[in-house]
C-alpha cells in the first residue's frame, strides 16, 4: 500500500455552533495530486486552514508524515514541510520576481546571515530553475506589481517551491486565469507533483480533469463522495448538489 503523507480523521470545526467542517476523513498519498471540489460554503477553504494551522480544529486529528499538526503553530507547520497558497495571490508588488523568490528561500536565522546575506550560487540556481518552471524565467527583473493576475498566481506557487514543501495546498489557483494560462498551470502542477503531494481546491472541472489523480467532494462540511474524476462526475449526489448547477 502506498505511504500516506496526510491522514485527517474525524476533523471538525465549529464556529459559534455552526460546523463548517464536520467529521471529515481525508487521506492523501505520497506523490498524489488530489482535487477538492464542492459548492461555495462546503468547507473546502476551512479544511486547508486547519491543515496549515491557520484555524484550530474543534476536534479530530491531522497527521502529516505521522506527525500531529493540530497542536502546532502555523510557522512550525510550514517548517515541517507544508506550503499553503491562499485564494488571492499575495506577492510583494514592489519587489522584482527575483526578489520575491529570493526572500522565500528558507535561511537559518542569525544576525550575520540577515545583515550580510549574499546571494549564493546555490540560491541563484534555485531561483532560476523555479522561475523557469513557473514561466517567469525571462521576467526575473520585473516588478511583481506589473505581472498579470495569472503570472502573480504562478509567482506565488514559485515562492512556495523555493521552500521545497512536501505537501502543497492550493486554493483556487486558476481563478482569474485565461484558458491558455489554465493549461500551463495544469502542466506546471503535473510537473511539480513529482516527489511531493498536492491538494488543489478548484471549481473549473476541465482543469480538475487535467490534473486530478483522485477527487474529493465536500458538501455542507461533510465528505459527500470520493473517487476518480469519472466516478465523481457520474455520482448522482454530486450532480445534484454541485455539477448539475
Ligand atoms: P468553501 O471554501 O468551500 O467555499 P469555506 O471553508 O470558506 O467554504 O466556508 C465554509 C463555511 O464556514 C461557510 O458557511 C463560511 O461562512 C463559514 N466560515 C468560514 N470561516 C469562518 C469563520 N472564521 N467564522 C465563522 N464562519 C466561518
Ligand atoms: Mg473557499
Summarize the structure.
The chain has 245 residues and is α/β, with parallel strands linked by helices. The protein has helices at residues 44-51, 74-80, 97-103, 111-115, 121-133, 149-161, 179-192, 205-211, 229-233, 236-243, and strands at 4-15, 18-29, 33-37, 59-64, 67-68, 82-85, 167-171, 197-201, 214-219, 222-227.
List keywords for this structure.
four-stranded antiparallel beta sheet, single chain, Rossmann fold, 26% strand, binds magnesium ion, 245 residues, binds adenosine-5'-diphosphate, alpha/beta
Q: What secondary-structure arrangement, pairings included, does this model have?
A:
Elements: E1 4-15, E2 18-29, E3 33-37, H1 44-51, E4 59-64, E5 67-68, H2 74-80, E6 82-85, H3 97-103, H4 111-115, H5 121-133, H6 149-161, E7 167-171, H7 179-192, E8 197-201, H8 205-211, E9 214-219, E10 222-227, H9 229-233, H10 236-243
Parallel strand pairs: 3-8, 3-9, 6-7, 7-8
Antiparallel strand pairs: 1-2, 1-4, 4-5, 9-10
Bound molecules: adenosine-5'-diphosphate (ADP) and magnesium ion (MG).
Percent of residues in beta strands? 25-35%
Q: What is the CA-atom radius of gyration, in angstroms?
A: 18 Å
CATH class: Alpha Beta
| Strand order in the largest sheet | 6-7-8-3-9-10
> Helix content range of the residues, please?
25-40%
Could you say which small molecules are bound to this protein?
A: adenosine-5'-diphosphate, magnesium ion
What does this structure look like?
The chain is α/β, with parallel strands linked by helices and 245 residues long. The chain has a single domain (4-91, 149-243), classed as P-loop containing nucleotide triphosphate hydrolases (Rossmann fold, 3-Layer(aba) Sandwich). Helix content is 36%, strand content 26%. The protein contains 10 helices and 10 strands. It has helices spanning 44-51, 74-80, 97-103, 111-115, 121-133, 149-161, 179-192, 205-211, 229-233, 236-243; strands at residues 4-15, 18-29, 33-37, 59-64, 67-68, 82-85, 167-171, 197-201, 214-219, 222-227. A 6-stranded mixed sheet has the order 6-7-8-3-9-10, with helices on both faces. Strands 2-1-4-5 form a 4-stranded antiparallel sheet, with helices on one face. A hairpin with a 2-residue loop joins strand 4 and strand 5 (67-68). Helix 3 (97-103) packs across helix 5. The radius of gyration is 18 Å and the shape is globular. It starts with a strand and ends with a helix. The relative contact order is 0.18.
Amino acid at each position: 500500500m502506498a505511504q500516506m503523507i496526510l491522514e485527517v480523521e474525524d476533523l471538525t470545526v465549529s464556529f459559534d455552533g455552526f460546523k463548517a467542517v464536520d467529521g471529515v476523513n481525508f487521506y492523501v498519498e505520497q506523490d498524489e495530486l488530489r482535487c477538492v471540489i464542492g459548492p461555495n460554503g462546503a468547507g473546502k477553504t476551512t479544511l486547508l486552514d486547519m491543515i496549515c494551522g491557520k484555524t484550530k480544529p474543534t476536534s479530530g486529528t491531522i497527521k502529516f508524515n505521522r506527525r500531529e499538526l493540530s497542536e502546532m503553530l502555523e510557522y512550525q507547520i510550514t517548517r515541517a514541510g507544508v506550503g499553503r497558497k491562499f485564494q488571492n495571490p499575495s506577492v510583494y508588488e514592489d519587489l522584482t520576481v527575483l526578489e520575491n523568490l529570493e526572500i522565500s528561500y528558507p535561511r537559518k536565522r542569525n544576525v550575520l546571515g540577515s545583515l550580510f546575506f549574499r546571494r549564493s550560487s546555490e540560491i541563484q540556481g534555485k531561483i532560476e530553475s523555479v522561475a523557469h518552471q513557473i514561466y517567469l524565467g525571462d521576467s526575473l527583473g520585473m516588478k511583481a506589481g506589473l505581472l498579470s493576475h495569472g503570472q502573480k498566481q504562478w509567482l506565488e506557487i514559485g515562492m512556495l517551491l523555493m521552500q521545497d514543501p512536501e505537501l502543497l495546498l492550493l486554493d483556487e489557483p486558476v481563478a482569474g486565469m485565461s484558458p491558455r494560462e489554465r493549461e500551463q498551470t495544469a502542466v506546471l502542477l503535473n510537473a511539480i507533483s513529482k516527489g511531493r503531494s498536492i491538494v488543489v481546491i478548484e471549481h473549473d472541472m476541465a482543469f480538475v480533469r487535467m490534473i486530478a489523480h483522485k477527487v474529493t467532494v465536500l458538501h455542507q462540511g461533510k465528505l459527500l463522495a470520493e473517487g476518480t474524476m469519472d466516478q465523481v462526475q457520474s455520482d448522482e449526489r454530486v450532480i445534484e448538489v454541485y455539477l448539475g448547477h
